[in-house]
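Lab notes, practical 5.
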Amino acid sequence: MIRLVASDMDGTIVGENNTVTAENRKAIQDMKQSHIDFTICTGKPYSMMKSFCQELQASYGIFGNGNQIIDLKTGKEIFRKTLSQEEVNTCMEMAKKENLHLHFYTENELITPKLMYMDLRNFRLKDSIFPSDLNFKIVSDLEQYIKKENPTVFKLVISSLTSLAKLEEKLKQTMNLTIYRIKKEKQYRDRVINKEYEYLDITPNKTNKSEALSILSKYLEISSSEVMAIGDNLNDIDMLQSSGVGVAVANAYEAVKQVATYTTMNNVDHSGFAEAVYKYISF
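Output from the prediction step:
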């Protein structure tokens, strides 16, 4: 029996045209009426997703790939985990040495020296579906800003037009961090900014959607077998593997499909999310 449905957002519920299909909305409402908790599980920060979660009436939210969990029914923060200043400084030094683009997220701000890759994507997506509380701040010198303001950093992103595999390995050898290397190329090209690139999504050690779902499951006193997870991207693999039912939508990365219990016939723009819900839940 499924008691909790955890779903990624971009590419899973929200399509390339930045809309949520009527079928996906109906599936969410059917879950709500059947008292099945719906959880948004995204790499984006809470400040960017707050209105989206309210509009879809999600019960819980996992943000920043698992570094923050919010009970959306009460507004209570269940969990948070942030990067240390030493970790932030080391990442900045390595990125600067390689002349790579870096931006980071605080609780309600995206800080960057220039809007270029994922930060430009998020800037263009800001308010595109629902109003966003995420503020964008351009600073000329990230190192000086960190030193002066000492912000609480939830996540760092390093982006490049070329492979970041060597930097990923070097960072993992230097520090205990959770790092996802995502390639936005070919069929996964970033159509929002019309660009191919690669990026490292960097969060504190043991920060991922699977760990966050485990924490949330304990909070709700349910087992992993009662959880269905739905996603499309590489940072969704762990939660699909650790859930009772793991679903990949048709447009998912091949690596995601390989670990999924089921891959939908329909992609995100044709309500693959709703297909999964109705396949495994009887209303």
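Observations recorded by the TA: The radius of gyration is 18 Å. The chain has ten helices and 14 strands.
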